[in-house]
Amino acid sequence: MVAKKGLTFEPVPLPDRFDYDDAEMAARAVAFLTHMRKRHSVREFDPKPVPRGVIADCIAAAGTAPSGANHQPWFFAAISDPALKARIRAEAEEEERRFYSGAAGDEWLGALAPIGTDDQKPHLEIAPWLIVVFAQRWGNFEDGTRYKNYYVPESVGIATGVLLTALHEAGLVALTHTPNPMKFLNGMLGRPASEKPVMIIAAGHPAADAVVPKAAKIKKPLSEIMGLFEAAPLG
Question: Considering the entire predicted model, what is its pTM?
Fold first, then answer.
């Protein structure tokens, strides 16, 4: 990152503006909601290749997300190498065996039961791409001096959401995976200690026999996730 010592606040005109009327806003909002309701987390992938450019553009879209102080505290490692994916699967399954053999606790395992997960993660090899999301706790300017990042979990979470949406928009399916701990990924992918791996995203086309857990499609109604605090009507 370029050192900010010489940077000062300099406002520039808003470069992009959309002037939709109420009807078009409503139509676009409904269309997007309908599209996002077709997003599914999938565990069965088709090994059919996905062009590198598609993944790169989806990650570039994630990079447009807002972030604390505009520090963009994220790094996305995109992996298609079969040998590396096999190593990641082996390490991840080792952690998962510990998780499912007692580390998780009965309550957590009970919550996962309707989703049908276990310690076997073949999708980590079958999916054409794995994207490892790293959160950068601090960084270094071009001159080598260290700087602090702000609101890192929030910023990385927003960027990851944009990435998942971009993959869906490209016609791909994805599965988020969070083996714990994931420190093995730093050494495997040559990432510095300043970065914390937070998620592995498998991405690709769904297998012909792909299924989804029925329970996973139960979403909270709008009344449970939104509260309205509107201005009182005038008069």
Answer: 0.94
